[in-house]
C-alpha cells in the first residue's frame, strides 16, 4: 500500500495536519495591530503601526484572521498567540517571537530569512514555498508541522521537537539537527547536503535517493574520511 503524503491543500492519515479555519467574511483591521490587542476575523494588510518600545509588540492575539503582504522585517513579538491564521506573501525576515504560540497557522510564500522561532509552541503549522534560510527554530515544541517546497538552508533545528513533522521537497543544505527529537520526522524530496547533527535523525524517514547525503554527513560527524588510496 503506498505511503500517503500531505500536500498544500490538506493532509491525509491519522497524523494529518489540521488546516486553518477562516470565516467567509473578514473585517479590515490592520491599523489595530498594537500591543495588548485581540483580533478575531480580521483581514490585515501591510505593516502594523510602529511600536513605541524599540519595535516590540507584546500580548497580541489573532484568531481566524488573514494577514496579506505584511512587511514586518525585524519586528519583535512577545507573547504572540495565533489560532486559525494565514500569513500570505508577508516579509517576516528577522522577526523574533518570544514566548509565543501558533496553532493551525499557515505561512504561504512568505520571506522568513533569519526569523527567530526559538522556543515557540507550534501545532498544525504549514510553511508553503517560504524562504527560511538561516531561520532559528531552535527548541521549538512542534507537532504536526509541514514544510513544503521551502528554502531552509542553514536553518538551526538544535534541540527542536519535531513530532509528526514533514519537511518535503525543500532545501535543507547545511541545516543543523543537533539534539533534535526527530521521531516521526519525514524528509522525502528534500536536499540534505552538508546537514549537521545527522546522528540525531534517529526515527526520521528518508527516501533511498537521500542515502548518499545522509551517509556522508554521518561519516563526517564520526570523523571517518572518505578518499582515494595514496
TrEMBL record:
Transmembrane ranges?
Answer: none
Comp. bias (Polar residues): 1-14
For region Disordered, the annotated ranges are 1-54
Gene3D superfamilies, A to Z: E3 ubiquitin-protein ligase SopA
State the Pfam families in the record.
Pentapeptide, Pentapeptide_4
Please identify the protein, giving its name as recorded.
Answer: Uncharacterized protein YjbI with pentapeptide repeats
State the organism of origin: Actinopolyspora biskrensis
What does the record give as the organism's lineage?
Bacteria, Bacillati, Actinomycetota, Actinomycetes, Actinopolysporales
